[in-house]
Hints:
By secondary structure, this protein is α+β, with helices and mostly antiparallel strands. The chain has a domain at about 20-145: 3-Layer(aba) Sandwich (Aminopeptidase), CATH 3.40.630.30. The chain contains five helices and eight strands. It has helices at about 40-45, 50-55, 65-80, 125-135, 155-160; strands spanning about 25, 30-35, 85-90, 90-105, 110-115, 145-150, 165-175, 180-190. An eight-stranded mixed sheet has the order 1-2-3-4-5-6-8-7, with helices on both faces. β4 (about 90-105) and β5 form a beta hairpin. α1 packs across α3 (about 65-80). The longest helix is centred in the middle third of the chain and has 16 residues, at about 65-80. It is globular, with a radius of gyration of 16 Å. The chain starts with about 25 loop residues before the first strand and ends with a strand. The structure holds coenzyme A. Coenzyme A binds next to α2, β5, α4 and α5. The site of coenzyme A has 20 residues, from α2, β5, α4 and α5. It comes from Micromonospora echinospora (Micromonospora purpurea). InterPro entries: Acyl_CoA_acyltransferase, GNAT_dom, Ribosomal_N-acetyltransferase.
Amino acid sequence: MRFPVSTPPAVPAGTLTTGPQPTLPAEGGLVLRPWADGDAPAVLAAYQDPEIRRWHTRRPASPEQVLQWFAHLRRSWQEETGASWAVTRDGAVVGRMVLGGFNLDDGEAGCAYWVVPAARGAGVASGALRAVSAWALGDGRLHRLWLDHSTGNVASCRVAVKAGFRLEGTKRSAAVHDDGRHDMHLHARVRGDA
Length: 194
Ligand SMILES: CC(C)(COP(=O)(O)OP(=O)(O)OC[C@H]1O[C@@H](n2cnc3c(N)ncnc32)[C@H](O)[C@@H]1OP(=O)(O)O)[C@@H](O)C(=O)NCCC(=O)NCCS
């Protein structure tokens, strides 16, 4: 039950689920599309990469676990709690882009991403983040998108800035990684930002 509040929701319930999760084109021939079960091996392989394991704590251990995760992601779209896209080029999965933790009352969501090693350094993450932001702050009717990354993750900081996410500050000791707690940079992009 949604307890009565004094302000109308920024994104009325049901706004996002009037249609299927969209497929989004991005610069450089990228296509962001909902995950398909056939992507499970690519996702499993991505989570073997040391850099992805360094900055993400999820540890899928089998194709079956990835398929369960995909099912959870499909429910998240239906329940308006989040959305996750396979970032693809020429049909192959080159990355992942996520909008999570929807707060429809305030019109806010958080972003996360990774790119497979072979596709890095070519604008995939920043291009995909720009594409998902344009959709979320446009047709998605959200007002503010945020992301955080370890202060040690310089490449992720660069991705955020390149996609128009301004640095807002440092959340001290905010996230647990495999090697302990990290300070996290908070970035955000608000509707109307350049
Ligand atoms: C971070 C990551 C998503 C970047 O993906 P990508 O597609 O290579 O990103 P882009 O090509 O759009 O941009 C990367 C930028 O970071 C810069 N960069 C990369 N490594 C860097 C480093 N070690 N120090 C400083 N800048 C770095 C690149 O030069 C580029 O900036 P530029 O275009 O101004 O030169 C990718 O490296 C990755 O998946 N890493 C492991 C998982 C991860 O860190 N996820 C984010 C968690 S918050």
